[in-house]
Amino acid sequence: MKKIQKLFPSMDGNDFQREEILSYFRSILTKIDELKDPNKLTLGEMPEYTEDYYNRVIQKADVPKKGLPMEEVIQELLKLVEGHRYVNRNYVANAAPLPNIASIIGNLVMVLVNGNNLWDVEGPAAATAEIEITSMLSKLIGYDESTSAGYTTWGGQGAVFNSLRLAIARYAPSSNQNGVPQNLYCFCSELSHYSLYKSVEATGIGVENMIRVKANVDHSMNLEDLKEKMEHVIAKGGIPLYVLATMGTTDTFGVDDIKGIKRIAEELECTYGICPIYIHADSAMGGMYTFFNNYDFESNPLLFKDNVKEVLKCYQQKFEHIKLADSMVFDFHKLGQTPYITSLFIIKNREYLKYVDLDTAETPYVGNRGYGSYHTGYTLECSRMGSALTIYASLLAFGIEGYQELLANYIRVNIAFRETLTKEISNVVITNEVSPITTFRFYPEKTRWNEEMKGILTIEEMTEINQFNDDFAEVIGAERDTVFYGNTKKQCLVKAANSNKPISVYAHKFFAISPYSTIEEVDRYVGFLKEHLAFFLKTSSNKNMILTTG
Ligand SMILES: *Cc1c(COP(=O)(O)O)cnc(C)c1O
């Protein structure tokens, strides 16, 4: 047993065993640091992802008969790290965080004491941290912290699922016994995340009962269309149960007008005498911008320039109404720069939880004891990681102002990127509003975005432009070790001249998430595109010539 005990941290806190763990940490940190290169995206060399790569992994895998020495375990782990993408200044693809140091430490503490966030008796640190961050962030967004509740869960996706479950149970408390009623309808923007799609599948509501609402030019939900579609459902005898208000769409950062959505919901409730419609703010992408809810743009203490201030002020006007939602989410592992998974689901009225909480008779192991008073029988998980500790550490280290600086930088860099991109390249168009994300689209010759928006191009013409962008995405994707851009095949939907079916627009994505992505880097980002585009145009026009002459 002595040999097995050596695999564990000490019981008595002796120096020797601590030094041993520290030396492992040190060698991991040192090796990873050695692999870092600010001019590359990856840590060391990327493995060759041949077609049989994963098959070979499957063939080779076996649990070793005898345990390996720790040094070898570390070597094996570091082999996995070889070629890993590392979020540095060359990463401009998606909302992938570089976990900040406080969050890494918070995470480490979580693992070292390894509390179970299911029950405070088993995980007191996480329980207190969860309650504390729920209160902190409730205050920030304008929920009453004495009536709100929150828990960390499986991502923005989990928050959508959890909110839909609450909506169903609130509307039909007997549904836990009898199953979900058949006439419930959910509404979301056509640009919303697929989280709701999966959730209507899994709750049994069914995809047929998920109604997609048209988006406006600014990528927010069209409220007339929402109202019309809800009234249509009511007229057919259906129940409008739930609206997903996206606060920052995944690809374009469109922000739904939640105040307008709430107004429509209340109008309909009043006119038709229907039950309150549940509104979940899907703020997985945008929720962090509530950190500006109380920023004073007049005195502007952080000295933001006018162009940045203008955008942030506009966000303030949208995000201050998030408090109208029945629930919302903070995905810290997106713009909050913490490790996966650190998502806090917040519910405005903790009373809702009683509809989904387990009866104490159903939880014989935990919870129903004289000791311990925090038992999350209402979560879909049983055992839960204490990721509230990670978020807590991050909030303490950044403070409101630290996050404001970080979030403002995303905007600053995007504004500079837009300016430089359109100055340096003529056949490009930017296809979304200023935000932490810039979507843009290239054209073989001059830009035709206005015509596309007006719906006067044919499907064939738009498909060709999509294909052009798709091919170019492959070209720059192959060079992603230099600068890694994102892309999307559904930036928005537009009409075609010769079809009733809306056409998806392909676009490239610039998402400067790293704190090392500053305005000084912008020329390099655009230079990369310019250089590759010139080459691509040359080679693709050669191809055309071969085609026409051949
Ligand atoms: C990312 C995202 C989600 C999903 O969040 P996860 O944390 O990845 O589960 C949901 N909604 C929106 C708008 C998102 O951007």
From TrEMBL:
Pfam families: Pyridoxal_deC
Gene3D superfamilies named in the record: Type I PLP-dependent aspartate aminotransferase-like (Major domain)
Any GO molecular function: aromatic-L-amino-acid decarboxylase activity
Sequence similarity: Belongs to the group II decarboxylase family.
Originating organism: Psychrobacillus lasiicapitis
Acyltransferase keyword on record: no
GO cellular component: cytoplasm
InterPro entries in the record: PyrdxlP-dep_de-COase, PyrdxlP-dep_Trfase, PyrdxlP-dep_Trfase_major
Keywords: Aminotransferase, Decarboxylase, Lyase, Pyridoxal phosphate, Transferase
Name of the featured protein: Aspartate aminotransferase family protein
Transmembrane segments: none
Keyword Ribonucleoprotein annotated: no
Residue positions, PTM N6-(pyridoxal phosphate)lysine: 334
One biological process term in Gene Ontology: carboxylic acid metabolic process
Cofactor(s) demanded: pyridoxal 5'-phosphate
